[in-house]
Amino acid sequence: MIRRLLHSLVLGVALAGCSHPLAPTRAVAEAQQLWQRTRPTNYRFTLAVGCFCGFVGPVVIEVHGDSVVGRRVQATGDVLDPRFGTSYTTIDGLFTVINQAYADHADHVDVRFDPTRGYPTSIAIDREERAADDEVGYAVTGFEALPP
101, 125 in Cβ contact below 8 A? Predict the structure, then answer.
């Protein structure tokens, strides 16, 4: 059931914006280069993470430079419990997640990218196809550049 939820989450985000399916490593490298060229110094986005690691709902993340300066649960505005902080990372951190999944030879990795800035809009990773409960999905929405 969680696999269907993750796939629905990822598919919904992918269809909501202009993106393209991932061709391993080359597409990731090209998207990451585009992100580095267009990356604003400060930005905000909403990240939903679906996994068997505790569910807190979408989180609004604010980044200044290379540092997360705020993580708030979208539904309540509450500061995110620090126990979940590492799952709710920067866009650069999401590229690290993608590249690590490939380095670890995950059985399935599906990523969609924003065509203008190159950041990942959806990520679905199944590390071991035959294992239960190891899937993780990320959905990025509401990206906005902030003033320096």
Answer: yes
Which residues lie below 8 Å from residue 55, measured CB to CB, with a gap of 6+?
none
How far is the C-alpha of 7 from the C-alpha of 125, rounded, in Å?
A: 10
Q: Extract the tokens encoding 111.
A: 């990523």
Residue 7 has a pLDDT of 41
For residue range 46-87, list pLDDT tens digits in order: 999 987 666 668 999 999 999 999 999 999 999 998 888 888
What is the enclosing helix (H) or strand (E) of 142? strand 135-146
- Strand pairing report for 108-113 and 120-126: antiparallel
What is the domain extent for residue 120? 2-146
Q: What is the CATH number of the domain that holds 15?
A: 2.50.20
CB 77 within 8 A of CB 32: no
Q: How far apart are CA 102 and CA 19, in angstroms?
A: 20
